[in-house]
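Page header: ASSEMBLY MODEL / two components / 274 residues total.
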Amino acid sequence: MTPVEQTLLTALVPIITELDVSRARQEATAIAAAHGFSKPAAYRMATAISELGNNIVFHAGEPGEIRLRVLRADGRLGLEAVAEDRGRGIDDVALAMLDGYSTGGGLGCGLPGCRRLVDEFEISSAPGKGACVKVRLWI
Amino acid sequence: MRIPILRLGEILLAPIQSDITDEQAMQLQAEILKLLEITTARGVVLDISALDVVDSYMARILTDTARMARLMGGEVVISGMNPTVAIALIEMGRELINVATALNLEQAVDALKARLSSFDDHDGIATGRSVSHGG
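Prediction written out in full:
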């Protein structure tokens, strides 16, 4: 059974250029600090957001957005980021989640690395249909 | 906005800021390589103490710049990585940055000076030295 989630705060950052990614990162760090997340947790989330945001800028080929949310579920406080675009999508999600696989630009550890940084990680994508990645960190 | 490259004798210092874009990174790479070619500089310090976040893209930029400079016969040290970056890089996995590092700018400069003078003791032929960094 999914616990009831209570949303405490939301923020939306449109992602078009690299500077938008930097904005999303700063926003997330500020929100994390304001809600009592530890510094390592805040920067783990910031790094994940950086990764996902840069994926939109360099791979999607279309603008996207990052939605941030502070939520409470089961008495725990969580920070969520959803990176979504309507770009070219990922041909093979399983392949993209493998360490060392890259279609260019990165080191081939972006998505799998991102998954290791957070507590929850969900990805959905299809060729030509964009990509949506949801990550969460809990206190 | 350009990233400044300072020169200290045979050493080039480049303080990297957090919102460096791809374009600025390319420009920085090109300028460092050019300076290695046309000046007597042989060592490069990439100072990342201003960075709170290093994702795989930034890691790629740092690693590439270091590799290119090394290929030309220069020596590169990355200095000032802060704890949050080290934690995230290790958690993301593997050796994201496979480059010599130093705790701070001062130690980076000292380490480079020591390395450069040890090359001088061994007749200074760049290709003759062992390169311990894998790739």
